[in-house]
Design goal:
Helix content is about 30%, strand content about 20%. It is built from 6 helices and 9 strands. The longest helix has 19 residues.
């Protein structure tokens, strides 16, 4: 992939730093249609080639964090460390090290920077696992439809999720909400930052 396609998706102050990393790396990068389960991934092949795929997004901050996240996987892989966990201490340390030069308010907005700094003390496999950071990042998504976080609608109210399935929001169990599928009656656990559409059809009540 041409670097310009990457640079179009990241904050301008981070371009020179990212360019330096890419010039030192031998990895192919592809932009793909958005996936619901992940923002990006890293793959290594038996022939030694490496591939990073990144979701196309207008959220330049999410794209940048995901790019560095996957480049950290590449750097750890090239270090030839054996028997390591995908998001173990080697990856965490490498991810923090790669993020440090751009961890400033020239690249990230102040509030997002605070949450990102906290997340990087012990980074998870996905930014979505950190509620504060996930909420801040979603503010920069360009949304075509009006969605809200599940945590922001009242208990016992109804919402649409997925292929227009209707659910009722019930009680919170530890970190997740127990919600009931109106058609099947089955119950499911939802993250508080699941993006849903409010359902206003009174016939569901």
């Amino acid at each position: 992939m041409k670097f310009n396609q990457i640079f179009e998706h990241i904050p301008y102050p981070s371009i020179s730093y990212v360019k330096q990393i890419l010039l030192e790396s031998n990895v192919e990068i592809k932009l793909v249609s958005p996936r619901k389960t992940k923002h990006g991934d890293f793959r290594k092949y038996k022939n030694g080639l490496c591939l990073i795929t990144l979701n196309k997004t207008e959220n330049q901050y999410r794209f940048l964090i995901t790019l560095i996240h996957e480049l950290a996987h590449y750097v750890v892989f090239k270090s030839n460390i054996k028997l390591m966990k995908p998001h173990g201490k080697e990856w965490k340390e490498t991810f923090r090290k790669l993020m440090l030069p751009i961890l400033n308010n020239k690249v990230f907005p102040d509030k997002l920077l605070v949450n990102l700094t906290g997340y990087l003390t012990n980074p998870m496999a996905s930014t979505d696992g950190n509620v504060g950071l996930a909420i801040e990042l979603k503010k920069y998504d360009l949304k075509k439809d009006k969605k809200v976080f599940l945590k922001d609608i009242p208990i016992n109210s109804y919402f649409n999720y997925g292929s227009n399935r209707i659910f009722k929001k019930n009680n919170k169990l530890r970190k997740r909400y127990l919600c009931q599928d109106i058609i099947s009656g089955r119950e499911f656990l939802f993250s508080p930052i699941a993006e849903v559409k409010k359902h206003y059809d009174k016939s569901c009540s």
